[in-house]
Structures are given as C-alpha cells and as structure tokens.
C-alpha cells in the first residue's frame, strides 16, 4: 500500500555546501540518502515529494559540520499481510514463481498455486491449467495476496498466494 | 552551542505513522471476530478499517487505494488453521513459504543460485525431486550437470598470457553478439575465455535430451558471465547456474543443491575429486587446455594449443565424443520398455555401457604401480575394471593385454613371446576418455635403457 507521509531527518552537511545553494544541497543530499531505502516501520521510500521545513542548523563541535533537521513529505510503499497486490512474474520454476511489485520481491510457492495448475518445464517454464486456458510465465501480471512480509534495509521480501478466489493471472503476455 | 545526535529525528509525524501501522494490524486482529460472524458486512468492515487509517494519517493524503485492498478476515482464518499443521518446508527471506510465518532458525539447504533468500528443507527437496522426475520422464529427459573450466571452455588471466599468445588479443569475438564467437575478452574480469570446439552444437543437441545445469568451482560472477556466453538466448540453463558460492561443502561439488533425483543425473567434469560422493554419476572429461597458463597449472611444460595456433578437433574432439555417449545413454534409458521408467537408474545405464568397452579383455600390469601399492586400489586398475576388463596379477593364457611403460620387463617380454598385446597405460586412459577400445598399435611400448 502507498502512503504519503511526513518524515523528519537530521542532515549533516559539510561547510563547503553552505552559501547560496544551501537549500538545494540539503534537498539533493536528502534525496540521495533516503530514496530507495527501506525501514521496517515505513517500508520503501519511493520518492520525496516536498520539503515542509528546514530547521535551524546546529554546528557540531570539532568538525564544523552542521546538522539541519529537515521535515519532508514522501511517498512510501509498504506491503501488509492480507493485502492484495498486483505484481509482475520474474521467474518460474518447479518450486513456484517469483514476482516483483516495485522494490518488493514476492515468492509464491507451488503449494500456494491452485492444484489444477501444473508445472511445465522448457525454455519458457510455466504453470498451466489442464485445459491450457490460464498460464503463468515470466512477465505475466498476477494478482496475489500477501501472507508474510519482511522489510530489510534495501529490500522487502514477501510470501504470496494465488490459491484463492479472484487471484491469479490478470494479464498474460503470451496472449496480449 | 549544542551537540546533536546522529540518528534521524523521530518526529511526531513518523511516530504517528508507525503507531498507525501497528494499530492497523492490531485493530485487524481485534476486529476479526465480529467480521467473521457477519460475513455480509465484510466490505463495510474493511472500508471502515481503511477509512479509519486514512483519518488517522492526519496531514497526509489518502493512500492510493486503486490497486490495493485489505481483506483481513481471510488471512486470520488461514493463519489459525495453518499455524498448527504447517511443517514450514522452506523459507524465503526467513519466512515460511507456505504460512508466511517468520522462522527464527535457519534450516535446510540454501538455494541462493535460484533466488536470493530461498531455502528448502530435505523433505521438500525430496518432494520436488520426485515431482520433477515425473515431469522429466514425460518429456523424455534426464538431468545433465556441466562443469565449465577444462570441460566446456578454458579461461586465463590476461596477466598470465605469454608473448606468443599476444596475437589472440586482436582476434577476440564481439561480446555484443556472442552466439557465434568462441574467443572472448572479459576486460572487467581481466580474463580471456576460449570455448571448446563443438560446444555450441553440443549444448544444442544435449538440451533436447537433458535438462542442463552449470556447476563450476568459479565464483558466482564468473559462472554468470560464462553462462551468458554459452547460452546468450537463455534457452539451456535458466536459473540452473551453480557456483562455488552455492555449494554446501568447501572444495566439493554435490548434487544436494541440484533439484533432480540422483538416479536421473549425469555429470560431465574433468575433476573427479570434486565429486567424491557422486562418482557413479560422473563421466570424466579429458581436460581442455587451450592457454599456456592452463597447461602450466597442470604441470605440462609443452607449447599450448594457443601458442601453436591450433585447437582440438571440432568433429572428433572430446565434446563430440561425449555427445555420442550421452545419446547412447539416453537411448538405453528410455528405449528399454521392459520395466517401469520410474525405477530406472541412469547410473546403472552408464555403468553397463562403460563395461561394454573392454569386456573381453584380461589385463595384467607390469611395473606400472609403485611396489607395495595395493594393485586393486590403483586408479588405472579401477578404470580398467569399470571399462569391463578383468584385471589380474598372474600371467596365464587367458590374459589378452599386458600394460607396461617398459618393454624390457619380464611380463612385457612374456607378452611379446606369447603374442599378447603390449600397451602403454595411456591406452586405458584414452579408451576411458574416448569410450571405445582404441587400436593397441598406437600405444606401443619401447625398451627403457637406464633402469
Ligand atoms: Mg573443471
Ligand atoms: Zn509454515
């Protein structure tokens, strides 16, 4: 799920960045430091969308570095247990399939793929129903349900399932 | 002047958010029973939870709800039924692949080469292998595990190239379209790689009979770079590229990380010692040394193929030979319709086929082994037996071959007198590599003067 939230961070700046471009320097450093990172609480920081305010700088003893408290708006993405996600299949094998939704890596084990879908090996491995009407292969878009999540510093891992009503392929590249 | 901490400030807004997330999850569980009881109100309940969240977000905007939706009840139902029964057969990112529960203890075998963070327990591996076996047999295929260095190709560090090999640097093939090239410069790895002649045909034809894996003692980056050269269209190996980083034992290769039943796996490798637990699956390959550094590494002080501007034969080289063997084994495995397929063992097929090669030979060795060495334990003795020959220490009329390095020994002279074949030990080795009994006259033995 995406959220638009306000977060705050202390930015440490070298004195060489002071001057007319101070604000720009703070913002570009903030983007570099924060965008693309994850935290267990907020999930993945997709993008910084605005600066609420930059507080008064505090000079650090000994180093001359200055710390600015920055309040900023950003879009974060965090998957939840029970959430329905749409994701793109990245790899299919006999164990199940892997899919991605932005920074989120999802594994759907063959235990959680409907029983009427059989694994087919070959140079384009896939799971297919016996009548051939539904096929999951690399680049298929699937709707799945998250049953477990783990957020690391840079990655989010999820366990997913498609063994439920209204889950499964939503767009098959082979027929598109 | 005041000192400040390094850590980011936990502002009120981010605290709110974290608290919100926690409360959302909590409220989900506390709300679960009424929701379960009143199924018809599901949507209303979910909506209200959602709105509740949005309201709590205060200054923030409404989340993008178009692609995501929460259905809390189902999860909780599933969880309560599964938690008791789940055996946690494997994990992804330390979460059970079936119930999603966070697992504290790491167990099972890591399959990092398939995907980062993936582990499987033994029972699950067994289950997958037996499922795989059925699928495989339906497609009339077996597994083939391929070594890289000296088996499919030869690589050298650029710094180890001799002046006589310098000319190669101007003859490398483009990395843009690798599918027709055979000599590649991998500058970022400071390496040059030469593919073994016939390898393209070999891979194409073998892939029709075998599901193929790469298994190298090189590191992951090297394995992937080589896979890219050998299989640019990704038709042969898929994610089945295993490097030393993926093994479970140092300096050893093992089939434990291969998701195929051992009775259906063949291995091609030039290093027998890497496969101590799986010798019965192994077809030993004659080493392909193209570069000087490779010859040097194995103690040969002769000119290398690269220095001689020569190469192994395309049509009669090791890969062409072994492809014929692979076809034969595949045929023998599937053509015999007398018993059930599932019960067959490719190791037995390999053994039987190998034993045909020297089946009518009775061999006596003469001063080939160091004195005091237990003859039956010597590699050549074992090799001859695997090729179907009978080995003996006694001379008698049934002996067909005497193997020696010196024609002057007593047994060698006996062979000459009795019109038996007198051959060099290389005859056995070459027969083993080429899978056919080679003409004895090409392996004659001369008298060694200074004994
Ligand atoms: Mg090797
Ligand atoms: Zn479990």
UniProtKB/TrEMBL annotation, chain A:
Q: Which GO terms describe its molecular function?
A: single-stranded DNA binding; single-stranded RNA binding; translation initiation factor binding
Q: Give the subcellular location.
A: Nucleus
Q: Which residues form the S1 motif domain?
A: 79-156
What are the leading ranks of the lineage? Answer: Eukaryota, Viridiplantae, Streptophyta, Embryophyta, Tracheophyta
Predominant location category: nucleus
Stored CDD domains = RNAP_II_Rpb7_N, S1_RNAPII_Rpb7
Q: Check the record and name the PANTHER family matching this protein.
A: DNA-DIRECTED RNA POLYMERASE II SUBUNIT RPB7, DNA-DIRECTED RNA POLYMERASE II, III
Gene Ontology biological process terms in this record: positive regulation of nuclear-transcribed mRNA poly(A) tail shortening; positive regulation of translational initiation; transcription initiation at RNA polymerase II promoter
A GO cellular component term found in this entry reads: P-body
What biological function has been recorded for the protein in this entry? DNA-dependent RNA polymerase which catalyzes the transcription of DNA into RNA using the four ribonucleoside triphosphates as substrates.
**Keyword check for ATP-binding:** no
Q: Gene3D superfamilies, from UniProt?
A: Nucleic acid-binding proteins (2.40.50.140), RNA polymerase Rpb7-like, N-terminal domain (3.30.1490.120)
Q: What range(s) does the RNA polymerase Rpb7-like N-terminal domain occupy?
A: 8-64
Q: Which UniProt keywords apply?
A: DNA-directed RNA polymerase, Nucleus, Transcription
Family as reported in the entry's similarity comment: Belongs to the eukaryotic RPB7/RPC8 RNA polymerase subunit family.
This one is known as DNA-directed RNA polymerase subunit
SUPFAM superfamilies in the cross-refs: N-terminal, heterodimerisation domain of RBP7 (RpoE), Nucleic acid-binding proteins
Keyword Thylakoid included in the entry's annotation: no
Automatic annotation (TrEMBL), chain B:
Catalysed reaction(s) here are: O-phospho-L-threonyl-[protein] + H2O = L-threonyl-[protein] + phosphate; O-phospho-L-seryl-[protein] + H2O = L-seryl-[protein] + phosphate
Task: Tell me the organism.
Answer: Ziziphus jujuba
- Domain BRCT, by residue range, is 353-445
Q: Which InterPro entries match?
A: BRCT_dom (IPR001357), BRCT_dom_sf (IPR036420), Fcp1 (IPR039189), FCP1_dom (IPR004274), FCP1_euk (IPR011947), HAD-like_sf (IPR036412), HAD_sf (IPR023214)
The main location is nucleus
Q: Enzyme group, top EC level?
A: hydrolase
What task does this protein carry out? This promotes the activity of RNA polymerase II.
Q: Which PROSITE patterns match?
A: BRCT, FCP1
Q: What is this protein called?
A: RNA polymerase II C-terminal domain phosphatase-like
